[in-house]
Automatic annotation (TrEMBL):
CDD domains: CYP107-like (cd11029). It comes from the Bacteria. InterPro entries: Cyt_P450, Cyt_P450_B, Cyt_P450_sf. This is Cytochrome P450. Pfam families: p450. Belongs to the cytochrome P450 family. PANTHER family: CYTOCHROME P450 YJIB-RELATED, P450, PUTATIVE (EUROFUNG)-RELATED. SUPFAM superfamilies: Cytochrome P450. It comes from Streptomyces brevispora. The lineage of its organism: Bacteria, Bacillati, Actinomycetota, Actinomycetes, Kitasatosporales.
Amino acid sequence: MDPAGGCPHAANARLLAQGAVTPVILPGEVEGMAVLGHDALKEFLSHPDVAKNAQHFAALQAGEIPDGWPLKTFATVQGMTTADGVDHRRLRSLMSKAFTARRVEELRPRIEALTASLLDELEEAAAAGDGVADLRTHFALPLPMGVICELLGVDAGHHDRLHELSNQIVATDIGPEEATAANREMVEVLSAVAAARTESPGDDLTSALIAAREENGDRLSPHELIGTLMLTIIAGHETTLNLITNAVRALCTHRDQLALVRSGSASWADVVEETLRWDSPVSYFPFRYPTRDLRIGGTVIPKGTPVLAGYSAAGRDTSAHGPDAGRFDITRTDAARHLSLGHGAHYCMGAPLARMEATAALEQLFTRFPDLDLAVPESELPRHATFVGNSVQRLPVRLRG
């Protein structure tokens, strides 16, 4: 895997041509595997002999993974994404109260108001920049970050730093010292948030998690609390940020598809689903581990191997989406079959919220600025330096023609 990241699709196509499952070399010469094919990934994500807990990561348990390994946080952070069985169900039940259909729907007025306010700021930024502004910085980032931090009760003063630290934690090209420092500071910031909510509880998820007790009286452990906050902030804004960014890029470079929405032949929800399939906001997500030698897609994945879930590859798998899988088409009838929000027990709990945020963002953005377009050729947009997230670092747009 190229730790510098970049656009994954050409490499994905080459790998898929060789098979649905492939061996990969992770940073630090760590041997792993990636599941790329749609059907193979769907089977793998829900297989009963696949675990998330790093106690099943053979090389880690053998002491072969250094502390500064850039992907170590994904394996060792304590929370829903690294828990199995009873622990996973316990943690998920605590979080589920914040993401019920009713609770998410109650957020709609706030999301729509925040979207409108951010569009004002985007227009101000463009006015100061000769009509051009970075949509990612001024709009696609502060919307999901504002919503998830409001849910968690995180003060606005922490938002920018939490985003910077999230970027470092999901980066795959940084050195051991940087990786260790980013994780340490993230824990410090979130510990301060937890302390503030302990001292002054509010109507937020962090306060609820601190107060939560299971029927047996067990409180969420301190490590689980910080791990849950970390995962919720990273997953709750990075993925939606990439989703909005990728959708705007797709519509600007496929004006015929934008015209379909404007004519009523398709919906903004269709745009979101096709973007999730065609340009998944997460390219390769770490890690899952077979608890026994496991044959998936005709290939044996040895017990204890760290496995990447190849969401961006599965989204363009021609065996699942047809020979035109590489084409952005919002009228595609199989778009909802994508796996970009997961599958099985670890399906993304925040999926309804992400969909609502992205739909509101796109509808208001293109209604207010119908001639919005990229200010530079798409090929010049700098990509993220990671093979985990899939998007660009900046998105300069011209709001009016």
